Amino acid sequence: MSKRVCAVMLAASLAFASGAESARAESFGGDWTPEQRELLQDTLSLSELRRDVERIAEEQEQLALERRQLGLEIDALESRVADNRELTATLVRAQYLQSRRPMLLSLLNARSLGEFNRLYGYYRIAVRYNEDALLSFREDTDALESRRGALAANSERLEQVKTGIEEQQRRLRSLQEDIDSGLLESGDPASLNRLAEELDAYWNNVGLYEVDEYFSQLASASSELPDFLQSSGKLKVSGLGTRYTIELTDQELNGFLRSRSADFDNFSFAFEDGRVIAEGRRDRLTLRIEGRYTLQTEPQNAVLFHVDKLVFNGLELPESTRRELEQKYDLGFYPQQVAPVEVNDVEMQQGRLRIRLQLTL
């Protein structure tokens, strides 16, 4: 995979650059003292918070550009609507006051077929002009209302983004203070700082890409899951053909995943009461995902997967990373792809996932 090749090359460069000290990076996920673990956990969270702040700042910049563009569009539409308002009002009054009646009378008084056709042509041009003018005015007013609504939504989102970036910056400062304090209180601050720097480099150059690759593969396999359920006979019918049940064991799910990609040979799902645990290992990287399948009814009926906890090499990644991966990769599945049904209930028990569905016509 291109991402993995890139990650391996970066890892090799990192190892070469750091020399003997890089050997300590091999211990990522190994035994750490409480002091080391606390510092490394804060370092990983700090790295991800910085990335989240950058992402939010990019969104803020994009929203600001959209806001300026919407402002220009609104100004142009307001000017056009104002210019055409008087003409439109005149046309509307003309319709109510029947000011076109003389034209109709002139048609009736035409002295020849040729004159009638000529007058009728003028009449049609006038009517078409009036209709086009009224239609254009309505389209402009509708567009103006739409742009004003988009501007209001943009302003609301911009305020949310501003609040979000301020909150993340406060968390960044607090975490940095914790790290600095931990280093000062350490018996060997230089060594501890090097370990933190190695983790930060390993995560940003290798770990981040590997975790992203896992989620990408899971999302790809999830999109194929409905076809697997249909072809493997997992859809059971009851209730005179109106109710369905899907039962899938974690072993069956693991077999399905491994049939799709060798990446899952060392990765496995386990269903427990109310939650799903997925764990995998590759080279120096270990990953643990804790989550749950939930029923969603709007905007469409589906079974979605939510990431409640994400642990990289024994260190928990922050909420911002979980949220980003959950939004980027859809790990849910959609039973409507199997049959015209909707999900009524999702249940996870020891080693088994059960989904109850109802026929929809």
Automatic annotation (TrEMBL):
Positions in coiled-coil regions: 46-80, 158-185
Signal peptide: 1-17
Protein name: Uncharacterized protein
Keywords tagged on the record: Coiled coil, Signal
Highest taxon of the lineage: Bacteria
